[in-house]
């Protein structure tokens, strides 16, 4: 690292308000190396999520749209588009930041960066909707067509959009981007609420699946098999996406809790903890960004029917009739 870049990384990572001269040369170099490693890992996570996620989410959306449109497939398409838009805003954010297209002095700065975070938050809440939809169907499989219709799915997605928009508009008007209040609102919407909801619904679904055969014991074998195939395909998708979401976003939850409880920042007289916090923060943000890029590959690995539909669709063969798809939630 040259002296210019080293100085920039040092000041950006630990702005000690004039106390950096108190560090020994060895201590300064250790902190610079920690900060440089944090920025390198963040760059790697960024490109991995973009390279995997931008084409992957488009492929997932096209593949799922070739199936019969149901509440389940609608939510999956919404998730794919939400992840795609989040990654697009991530690319734009990096471009604007690297080339100073939008600076902190610009009026549009806070609004643009809030929009970037809003896209990722909406995608995470779409996963929450998928989990709740799966839970409702597994708890009450015989009333799917009555309680869970496309109209309900559209209304739920619209209400979610309005609620999150209202929260972000309110915090944008009241607080500056990056303030502690803003961080609390953002992490609550992005992580602190979706993560436990996903954990709880996934656990309840896993328990209910074990009881499923008892509830369906009075049905014919053909009916049981048909409903089981339909439910299991969507449930496997939901559980794999939920598992990835939990694994990749839990570190960010922990880091942000430390920030809120311990008030760790890189504006601290404690030099090395600040550098370590900076490293943990950049890595956890990079991991959470991966959640928007890996879903299609989880679908491909975990669900045979998705693989078959993908092969039929992109090998220019005849697409199987939508009415026979196991992604349908109709009985």
Automatic annotation (TrEMBL):
Q: Where is it chiefly localized?
A: membrane
Q: Where are the transmembrane segments?
A: 44-67, 74-95, 115-132, 153-171, 183-207, 235-259, 279-300
The record's listing under InterPro entries reads: GPCR_Rhodpsn (IPR000276), GPCR_Rhodpsn_7TM (IPR017452)
Q: Which UniProt keywords apply?
A: G-protein coupled receptor, Membrane, Receptor, Transducer, Transmembrane, Transmembrane helix
Every copy of the G-protein coupled receptors family 1 profile domain together lies at: 56-299
Protein name per the record: Uncharacterized protein LOC101864546
Membrane topology, as annotated: Multi-pass membrane protein
| Taxonomic lineage | Eukaryota, Metazoa, Spiralia, Lophotrochozoa, Mollusca
What organism does the UniProt record list as the source?
Aplysia californica (California sea hare)
């Amino acid at each position: 690292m040259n002296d210019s870049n080293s100085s920039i990384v040092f000041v950006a990572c630990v702005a000690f308000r004039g106390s950096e001269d108190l560090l020994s040369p060895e201590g300064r170099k250790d902190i610079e190396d920690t900060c440089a490693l944090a920025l390198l890992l963040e760059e790697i996570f960024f490109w991995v999520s973009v390279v995997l996620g931008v084409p992957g989410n488009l492929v997932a959306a096209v593949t799922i749209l070739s199936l019969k449109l149901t509440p389940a497939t609608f939510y999956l398409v919404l998730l794919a588009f939400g992840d795609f838009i989040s990654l697009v805003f991530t690319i734009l954010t990096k471009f604007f930041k690297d080339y100073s297209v939008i600076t902190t002095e610009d009026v549009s700065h806070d609004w643009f960066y809030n929009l970037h975070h809003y896209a990722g938050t909406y995608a995470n809440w779409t996963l929450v909707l998928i989990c709740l939809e799966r839970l409702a169907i597994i708890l009450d499989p015989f009333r799917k067509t009555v309680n869970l219709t496309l109209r309900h799915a559209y209304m739920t997605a619209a209400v979610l959009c309005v609620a999150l928009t209202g929260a972000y508009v309110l915090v944008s008007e009241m607080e500056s981007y990056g303030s502690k209040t803003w961080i609390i609102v953002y992490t609550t919407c992005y992580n602190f609420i979706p993560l436990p909801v996903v954990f709880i619904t996934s656990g309840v679904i896993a328990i209910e699946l074990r009881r499923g055969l008892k509830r369906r014991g009075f049905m014919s074998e053909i009916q049981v098999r048909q409903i089981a195939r339909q439910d299991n395909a969507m449930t496997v998708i939901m559980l794999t996406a939920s598992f990835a979401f939990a694994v990749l976003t839990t570190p960010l939850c922990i880091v942000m809790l430390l920030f809120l409880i311990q008030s760790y920042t890189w504006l601290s007289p404690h030099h090395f903890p600040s550098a370590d916090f900076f490293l943990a923060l950049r890595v956890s943000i990079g991991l959470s960004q991966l959640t928007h890029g890996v879903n299609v590959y989880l679908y491909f690995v975990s669900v045979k029917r998705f693989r078959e539909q993908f092969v039929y669709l992109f090998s220019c063969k005849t697409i199987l009739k939508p009415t026979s798809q196991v992604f349908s939630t109709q009985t």
